[in-house]
Design a protein that fits this description.
Helix content: 55-70%
Distance between the termini: 17 Å
Radius of gyration: 21 Å
Order of helices and strands: EHHEHHHEHHEHHEH
Number of helices: 10
Strand order of the largest sheet: 3-2-1-4-5
Number of strands: 5
Shape: elongated
Largest sheet: 5 strands, parallel
């Protein structure tokens, strides 16, 4: 089975959000050779950018907290506050590094065992049409164009097209009838939760 994922799949793993366990289970299926996970190259770049933006915000928060602690600790009643807050400051720093490590590990797993869909001139041109036809924002159009092109090529080269699904948390934009019709054309099922994706891949564990 081919499972297409996008930016939110990587961010779910990186930041250990509410559905990170199903995402990790899908990556385990990939590592075991029972699943083919494919992701647009654009989604990897977008996830890395989002992680860096989050890290910058957290660094700014850390600096603000440190400044406030310095000011507060000048008062006798708060003189021990800086020492007591060490665990919080350490957690802010460590959590950012841990998120970066999880993101890169997830990317590496897909690069090693799955497939990264290239962003080329054909995809860029197709994404421009997708924006107009399906009213998708530019990032979503690039992802959708990448998925559709790969799915079409898979079907064209197969006597029996494999099962395919597209895991995408952006339900409002991707559950429209025109987008759904396009996905059905290539026998690809849209699932808007990672838990639902795991249930689709491994029904007994849904």
């Amino acid at each position: 089975m081919i499972v297409y994922v996008e930016t939110n799949f990587l961010l779910e793993v990186a930041f250990q959000q509410e559905e990170h366990l199903p995402c990790s289970a899908l990556l385990a299926e990939l590592a075991g050779g029972t699943l083919d996970i494919r992701i647009p190259a654009f989604a990897i770049a977008e996830a890395r950018l989002a992680r860096r933006r989050r890290a910058a915000e957290r660094t700014e928060l850390l600096h603000r907290v440190q400044r406030e602690l310095r000011e507060l600790s000048r008062a006798a009643e708060w003189s021990e506050l800086r020492a007591q807050s060490g665990a919080l400051l350490g957690a802010l720093t460590a959590s950012g590094e841990a998120a970066r490590g999880r993101l890169e590990a997830a990317i590496e797993a897909i690069v090693r065992g799955g497939r990264v869909l290239p962003l080329d001139a054909e995809i860029i041109a197709r994404a421009g049409n997708v924006e107009n036809w399906f009213a998708l924002a530019s990032p979503d159009a690039l992802v959708f164009a990448s998925v559709m092109q790969d799915a079409e090529r898979v079907d064209a080269g197969a006597k029996i097209p494999p099962d395919k699904c597209f895991l995408n948390r952006n339900a409002p934009d991707f559950t429209t009838p025109p987008v759904q019709d396009e996905l059905r054309r290539v026998s690809c099922r849209l699932l808007t939760s990672f838990r639902g994706g795991l249930a689709f891949v491994r029904p007994s564990e849904g």
